[in-house]
């Protein structure tokens, strides 16, 4: 308590010496204090997943992206997309940011827009969780859930977002799928953070992709830092073409089935993912993803969304492929609170044929009927 009071007094003191109307004087310990919400994005902890590391004889590390201020890895992309729009002169004070998103980029954008004085319009497929839609509304975004149709359909949420921006004054479509400022966020922040946090001893990285920004940016950063020796794999859920695309050397784009995961899986090669160096791919069925949701909660105390848990399954498989003694990392994209009415509901899991995938010793964690 006393320490907290002293710290807050120190900050008040720091503020009192700043000059009104000028960029605030950095607080006393500029390394410890982040400048506003944008300054709090990134620099997330790297967590050793103990039980999985011990089981594989490798170090399996998850980057805790759910600790970003908007609660997901997409805060990084949101910040870079807005900054790029500002720097290009397209986004002017009081303007509107428009995006098509499965939810997390929208949540990141809504936070950044509030912090910088912009309006935020979000088009999203109506298949996404109610928790994400409600959160976007609470954050003040103008949310427009629309029927989930393929990218080739003019009514796809991305095309609607673009059209809205084109037909409104001072509105910018941030275009997260094909605007490579998304990838840049990870090439300039997430990748270098991972390299520094592992002291340059990183044998493998793997994650799933939605826009491709995370995987492509981190691949670029790690390949540059390691001179090409860090192996980078793509992880893919059912219903996505990317596993077939990577394993066929780009010759095939086949898909089958569908997935309960949100925000990942793709039917095309986005500009963010194009020309990315990848060493392999891992397909993860929903049964293994769901089992990992409950295992990570029961054994590691980590309450993570399905894409994070798919990533951890893939990191486990990659560790086994690389062999004992290796260091393998992935990203823990967001928390499970965003999906809890689905993932932690017995009837929802049964409806998807996934209740049996939860290990019997973890079934007490399925909290809702
Ligand atoms: C929960 C979640 N995980 C993973 C991703 C994929 O990240 P990226 O778009 O950088 O490929 C997203 C994207 O929206 C997401 O919402």
Automatic annotation (TrEMBL):
Keywords in UniProt for this one? Amino-acid biosynthesis, Mitochondrion, Pyridoxal phosphate, Transferase, Transit peptide
Name of the protein this chain belongs to: Cysteine synthase 1
Question: Which GO BP terms apply?
Answer: cysteine biosynthetic process from serine
In terms of Pfam families, this protein maps to: PALP
Task: Give the EC number(s) listed in the UniProt record.
Answer: 2.5.1.47
Could you tell me which InterPro entries the record lists for this protein?
Cys_Synth/Cystath_Beta-Synth, P-phosphate_BS, Ser/Thr_deHydtase_PyrdxlP-BS, TrpB-like_PALP, TrpB-like_PALP_sf
Extract the CDD domains matched here. Answer: CBS_like
Keyword Oxidoreductase in annotation: no
Gene Ontology cellular-component terms for this entry are:
mitochondrion
Family in the record: Belongs to the cysteine synthase/cystathionine beta-synthase family.
Record keywords: Amino-acid biosynthesis included? yes
Q: Cofactors per UniProt?
A: pyridoxal 5'-phosphate
The pathway it acts in is:
Amino-acid biosynthesis; L-cysteine biosynthesis; L-cysteine from L-serine: step 2/2
Q: Which NCBIfam families match?
A: PRK10717.1
Start and end residues of each Tryptophan synthase beta chain-like PALP domain: 40-334
Q: Which PANTHER family match?
A: CYSTATHIONINE BETA-SYNTHASE
Q: Which GO terms describe its molecular function?
A: cysteine synthase activity; pyridoxal phosphate binding
Enzyme class comes to transferase
